[in-house]
Amino acid sequence: MTVDHKKLAVIHIVKRELGLSDDEYRDLLQRETGVRSAKDLDDKGFRRLMRYFTASRHYRINKYGLTFRQKLFIKHLADDLGWDVHHFKNFLNKYYQKTEIDKLTKREASKVIESLKNILKHKRSSHAQP
């Protein structure tokens, strides 16, 4: 079974953010997962690729200390909440006085992650109640 469109989108976002050329990207896919196209990845290959990105030289920290892994996780949580870009930016601005993820410090990113996890937990528990 191949990965869903959300995971494909994450892979292509990572590719773009890391500035990988198409050849570098395809060589990396082949070396790490055994396929030349992300469309051919299964869930195990997706996890292997994400582990590679977070453990490799591509694991970047911005000048504020934000890790690549935190940034991806924040985007994933916002997506799970169904928030569009505008809603998420309003949340960041209201509670953290920031306009984008890349401006967060490592500590702020940790707080954002915990906040989003709590919001998601609350949302799921309120939907589960009859």
Show the helix and strand layout.
Blueprint lengths: L4 H14 L3 H12 L9 H13 L12 H14 L3 H12 L9 H23 L2
Helix pairs in contact: 4-6
State the major sheet: none
Oligomeric description of these chains: single chain
Q: How many domains is the backbone divided into?
A: 2
Radius of gyration: 16 Å
Descriptive keywords:
single chain; 130 residues; mainly alpha; 2 domains
Can you walk through the features of this model?
It is a single chain. By secondary structure, the chain is mainly alpha-helical. It has 2 domains: 5-55, no CATH class; 68-128. 68% of the residues lie in helices and 0% in strands. It has 6 helices and no strands. The chain has helices spanning 5-18, 22-33, 43-55, 68-81, 85-96, 106-128. The model has no long low-confidence stretch (mean pLDDT 87).
In short:
With 130 residues, this protein is mainly alpha-helical. The protein has helices at 5-18, 22-33, 43-55, 68-81, 85-96, 106-128.
